[in-house]
Amino acid sequence: MVAMFEKRSLRDFDWLLAILAVAIVCFGTWQIRNAQPNETFWQKQLVGLGIALIAMLVVAFTDYRKLVNFAPAFFIFGLALLVIVLIPGIGMKINGQRCWIALPGIGQFQPSEFVKIPTVLMLARYFGRQRSGALRLKEMVMGGLILAAPVGLILLEPDAGQALTYFPLLAVVLFLSSIRMWLVMAALLTSLVAIPAAYVVGVKTGVIKAYQQERIQAIIDPDKVDPKGFGYQTTQSILSVGKGGIAGSRGNDEFSQSALKFLPEPHSDFIFAVTAENTGFVGCIALLMAYALLLSRLIGGARRARDRTGMLVIMAVVGGLTFSIFINVGMAVGMLPVIGVPLPMMSAGLSSVLATFMTIGFAISVQLRRFVN
Amino acid sequence: MKFEDASQNLRARLGTIQLIVFVLLAVLGVRLYVLQIVKGKAYAERAENQRVRLLPIPAPRGAIFDRNGKLLVGSQSIYNIIVSQEDKKKDYSPLIPPLSASLSIDAEDLRARFAEVKSQPAFQDILIKENVSQQDIVWVESHSLEFPELRVELQPQRRYPANGHLAHVIGYVGEVSPEQLLQPRYKDKGYKPGDIIGKEGLEAVYDEFLRGRDGYRKVIVDSRGHIQQEIARVEPQSGQDLVSTIDDDYQTAAEQRLQMTPTKRGVIVMMNPNNGEILALASAPTYDPNLFSQRMATKEGRAEYNAMLQDPKTPLINRAIQGRYPPGSTWKIPMAVAGLKQGAITVDHSNILCGGGIMVGNKFTRCMGNHGMPELRTAITRSCDGYFYRLGLKMKIEGIMKMVDEFEFNKRSGIDLPHEIVSWTPSPAFKAKMQPKDPEWRDIDTVYASFGQVYDIITPISLIRAISSVAVGGQMYVPHFLKEFRPVAALSEEGLADYRPGRPARTFDRGQPKLIEMPEDQHAVVIDGMWGVVNGGGTAGAIKMPEVEIAGKTGTAQVVGLGKDVGANKDHSWFVSFAPARKPEVAMVALVENVGFGGQFAAPASRAMYDVWYAKMHNLPLPMPGATEAGKKAPVQIADPEGNRVTIPLAAPTPDASAPHATQDNHASKRPKR
């Protein structure tokens, strides 16, 4: 923390990264206001931005190595939260999912967003040691176990969307820990075969529920799906995106898709559709470029990291962010089925913004300490 | 990188991840390009369509008046309760118990209604109760928070007169059926499901003029169908009022007279022979058109309808245009006119033997009396069958067919009512069809064809048309109800979106009447004969009127066999007439089903009509039940039964005279009766 005041720290602090993140949240807040002008979501988002900014700075100016050392403690604490959230009475049940803990006076928070941080730290800690040669089976199993604990608990909530966002963390870490390329190729090929097969089996056995099937059908064949059924969200999202055209309505449409409630969850899961309707192609591309810049900046930081652990922390963050962005925007543009994954820094929600800013804080912390011994 | 490890290709792997990140974002960018730039307009349109809805404002239908401006049918505003359908998937069953309890709707009906709309396009509103009471409206409004999908809607509805008054003339309206929507004449005119159209009677024939042009409200709705804002409004333009040729006093009198007959079944048509305007057309029994315009959606209504379809008294049939009856001796009038025209008889030499009947082959077909060798006048007045058997044989079947052609008995009259049927008229072809076992036309068939039985089975409207033309000396008009359509003013200004052009006044396009050449002297003889029927001691002498000279002709239509009184299948009683005899102003046909000998009921019913007519012409109190005391005359009884003495046994009794007598056996013996 002392380093915060050192001139060098200020010089090495990745201002661009922080400003990009803040700018995206501000842009998102405007869209939240467009989506729900009569609700307080956008004001809450600004408050959340303030809190998240402070948290980011605190994390950034803390030595990440210390935090990595404490990773097991954080991890167990995180798992404990995931257990607590399952207890009826503490965990709030919304839409059949028990994934929120109510904090009197503050609001509610979603442990599954935060547990990503200790999970990343745990993975970085385990795979961060100096290594030579390819990844061994034992290490892979270990990585799998680290991931399995939070994912299993999250699936109990059940929140499949959030659980899904944990997988890229491990995937990136394994990939960068010199997993054998043939294993990567094999995994890719297997998933090419296994995912459709799993879908078929899931449908046959009833594991994949009817509404989930319909959401998937909405992507595969949008014309065949009942536009008023479970394909409704996808249909309406595509309409909203398409309606935006080149420049969008710039918030001047009193009767937008979200105002008329055609678009569900416009402030959270479908914030991208709102963005598209309001800012059009120009705004959407600008947002995607901002994300690209932010992610490149993070990857650049990873390249310059002074140790494996730091590099892995940043890259896991990159993997997580990229995955969430792709899943959420893919869903909004009708390429992917509807999955409840928030768009990082855009979707309304304190937990998501706070967790994302903290991970970015880690990345900044790693960069700040690239020359420090 | 401080931990360089060449064996791990870390740089390459980081590069790969960066590449993947860019590729994924680029994929999203391409997709956005497709959605927003390439297809943006189409999606914007679809988004626009789902938020903008046109809500029709139903236009009032034109009213129908009688010739004196008396309102016969109008529209009144009713309130309906509507459920706005937000989502096809939505389960409405939780609504059923509270709605059926509070609005007293049958729970089963509601369930059926909700099930029905599942197959309809989305956002179709569901009508759950029609013509609701004030209490129902209050209930819906006070429960708007609990049941936001409920709505009360104003709709103009047709109210038809009670007791089936004028039902067969005016008809009724109803919702356009899915089958009709497939027909080009509805589809091309832009009819859409739920539209109310004329289904029967004048409502159907003049639907195009009576119907207004609906207005609409263009509104923005949210995803639940709740109106957010009205962005445009086009006012409805009401339909054109129809002034009919009906005189409601005559109509009421005609209906009452039919009600006073023993069987309460029959037809009275009163027409102006000088132009074809129908003053009254009553067909009994009648039905309640409100069933179709109001109650068809209910279970009771459908049961009522099915009962009517099954009813052997066929209340839905307009007997004047959809009933076929043998004309009996009324047939002698066109026969007489044609006989003179064709030269079978002449004005000076019209005597033909009666002979008490005729022997054709080994069959004797008798006349009811023995009239010696009467001239035409007497033959009409006395209704001498023997005379007309021989006249028919002189004219031959070709002559009779020529007469049929001339009086257009083998055509529709062209009346402005739907579903008019064509009479059956004698011809060898008709016999061949009717009696395939004995297709050959014989003299005996000509005899039958000449006195209005067996091969002559005609509609009352075709008969009144023919008799009217005889009355006025040859002009045969198309009978009709339309006097005029009143004009409707234009709405808004030309060129504006909500402009509706005005609709001009319109009268019935009568065209030129068909002219039947009738030399003055020949005409006079026939009129004299008809005059004699009432005024010269003829078959309807009992209805002689001191004030006006009625000319007429009685008739008896055989049902099973003439004069065979078998209870329900008694003969039909006819009376055709016009008055004043020498300068006719009204013509009339009266038919009473299954009451026995001609004239016994039909002639007095006609007389009662003439009483009303005379009183009206002279501004006297109308002699009608319920109108004045003067109307309560006892029915005139005719002691002298008139009719044709032929008995043609049928293999099976046919209760309905309009059914073909296809099982006729001409070889059966013709026993004299009475």
Descriptors for this entry?
heterodimer, A: 373 residues, mainly alpha, 3-stranded antiparallel sheet, 16 helices, B: 674 residues, alpha+beta, 7-stranded mixed sheet, 5-stranded antiparallel sheet, 22 helices, elongated, disordered C terminus
Task: Tell me what you see in this structure.
- In chain A, 66% of the residues lie in helices and 4% in strands.
- By secondary structure, chain A is mainly alpha-helical.
- In chain A, a hairpin with a 3-residue loop joins strand 2 (97-103) and strand 3 (107-109).
- The mean pLDDT of chain A is 85.
- In chain B, a hairpin with a 6-residue loop joins strand 11 and strand 12 (278-284).
- At the A-B interface, helix 10, helix 13, helix 14 and helix 15 of A face helix 1 and helix 2 of B.
Overview in brief:
The complex is a heterodimer of chains A (373) and B (674). By secondary structure, chain A is mostly helical. Chain A contains 16 helices and three strands.
Indicate the proportion of strand residues of chain B: 15-25%
Low-pLDDT ranges of chain A: none
Main interface by residue count: A-B, 58 and 49 residues
Can you give the mean pLDDT of chain B? Answer: 83
First-last Cα distance of chain B: 133 Å
What's the structural blueprint in terms of helices and strands?
The complex is a heterodimer of chains A (373) and B (674).
Chain A lengths: L6 H6 L2 H21 L5 H20 L3 H6 L1 H14 L6 E4 L2 E7 L3 E3 L1 H4 L1 H12 L9 H20 L3 H5 L2 H10 L4 H25 L4 H11 L11 H13 L26 H34 L3 H25 L17 H19 L5
Antiparallel strand pairs in A: 1-2, 2-3
Chain B lengths: L9 H29 L1 H12 E6 L6 E2 L5 E13 L12 H7 L4 H11 L8 E4 L4 H9 L7 E10 L7 H4 L2 E3 L2 H5 L1 H4 L8 E3 L2 H5 L1 H4 L4 E7 L5 E8 L7 E3 L3 H12 L6 E6 L6 E7 L5 H6 L3 H12 L8 H4 L9 H10 L15 E4 L2 E4 L9 H7 L2 H22 L21 H7 L8 H8 L9 H12 L3 E2 L5 E4 L20 E2 L6 E2 L4 H16 L15 E7 L14 E8 L6 E7 L9 H16 L57
